[in-house]
């Protein structure tokens, strides 16, 4: 029986995407997040981790890998209307069903940060609004915006795998590829403005680019930030207050924070 290599990696949330970029040439077959600071990578051969990244390697038979991998992804209900499911699970009869194939790019709804981003979009995003997904990963948030009948939708990610996974997941949801505009760019390269921006990356990124995201947001627009830990949230709150961003709602789940801001006119 063919053996697969399973590498269990301990890594901070905000460093996962960078690691995937570094590993993308090493015959990776599947990736998922098994914990808040843990990532499991399956590959055909033993992978080489960058300096400073800790991981332990195990071997599994082909049957074990296929079974365990699929068993790790079950339908997830978000609020009253949304269900996220992998393509091998049957439709769940939800008002909005998101079919997402778990692969190289993150975003299956299992992690609290993705879950609460979906919740905030469902609650605050309105039909016809423009939408920017910063760090789009699997494209799950952009696909929800499309299913909620958003207007112009842009998915932004520096990982080329994200574009590939977005196309696959659009197809699984019977959404035309032209419906979501994927851009493999840095956020500073975006010159358009949006009614709704979501960024599920991490506190360091938020602090560094909050002013840029605020400038890209239309007046009265909504900005949803997730991926940061509760211990760092006060730093984000201080910067948001300086930019006159008003908190609408905060969700804390297993120490991960998701917050929705509204852009208001500066008060002189």
Q: Can you describe this structure?
A:
28% of the residues lie in helices and 33% in strands. The protein has helices at residues 16-23, 62-71, 112-124, 140-147, 160-172, 203-216, 233-242; strands at 3-10, 28-35, 38-43, 54-61, 76-78, 82-85, 96-99, 131-134, 153-156, 181-183, 194-200, 217-229, 245-253, 256-263. A hairpin with a 2-residue loop joins strand 13 (245-253) and strand 14 (256-263). It is globular, with a radius of gyration of 18 Å. The N and C termini lie far apart (71 Å). The mean pLDDT is 88.
Features of the shown structure:
alpha/beta; seven-stranded mixed sheet; four-stranded antiparallel sheet; 28% helix
Provide a compact summary of the structure.
This protein has helices at 16-23, 62-71, 112-124, 140-147, 160-172, 203-216, 233-242; strands at residues 3-10, 28-35, 38-43, 54-61, 76-78, 82-85, 96-99, 131-134, 153-156, 181-183, 194-200, 217-229, 245-253, 256-263. It is 28% helix and 33% strand.
Number of helices: 7
Rg estimate, integer Å: 18 Å
Structural class: alpha/beta
One letter per element, helices H and strands E, the order comes to EHEEEHEEEHEHEHEEHEHEE
State the major sheet. Answer: 7 strands, mixed
Strand content: 25-35%
Low-confidence stretches: none
Q: How would you sum up the global shape? A: globular
Span between N and C termini?
71 Å
Instruction: Enumerate the strands of the largest sheet in spatial order, edge to edge or round the barrel.
Output: 10-9-8-11-12-14-13
Number of strands: 14
Mean pLDDT: 88
Percent of residues in helices: 25-40%
């Amino acid at each position: 029986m063919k053996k697969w290599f399973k590498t269990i990696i301990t890594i901070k949330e905000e460093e996962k995407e960078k690691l995937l970029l570094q590993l993308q040439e090493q015959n990776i077959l599947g990736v998922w997040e098994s914990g808040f600071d843990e990532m499991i990578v399956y590959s055909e051969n033993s992978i080489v981790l960058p300096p400073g990244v800790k991981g332990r390697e195990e071997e599994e038979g082909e049957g074990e890998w296929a079974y365990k991998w699929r068993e790790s992804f079950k339908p997830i209900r978000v609020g009253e209307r949304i269900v996220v499911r992998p393509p091998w699970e049957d439709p769940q009869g939800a008002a909005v069903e998101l079919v997402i194939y778990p692969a190289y790019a993150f975003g299956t709804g299992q992690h609290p940060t993705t879950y609460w981003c979906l919740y905030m979009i469902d609650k605050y995003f309105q039909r016809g609004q423009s939408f920017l997904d910063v760090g789009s990963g699997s494209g799950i948030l952009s696909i929800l915006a499309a299913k909620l009948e958003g207007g112009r939708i842009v998915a932004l990610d520096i990982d080329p795998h994200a574009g590939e996974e977005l196309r696959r997941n659009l197809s699984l949801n019977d959404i035309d590829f032209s419906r979501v505009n994927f851009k493999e760019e840095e956020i500073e390269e975006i010159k358009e403005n949006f009614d709704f921006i979501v960024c599920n990356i991490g506190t360091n990124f938020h602090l560094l680019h909050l002013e840029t995201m605020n400038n890209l947001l239309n007046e009265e627009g909504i900005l949803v930030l997730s991926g940061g830990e509760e211990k760092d949230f006060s730093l984000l709150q201080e910067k948001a207050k300086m930019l006159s961003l008003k908190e609408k709602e905060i969700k804390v789940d297993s120490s991960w924070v998701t917050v929705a801001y509204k852009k208001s006119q500066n008060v002189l």
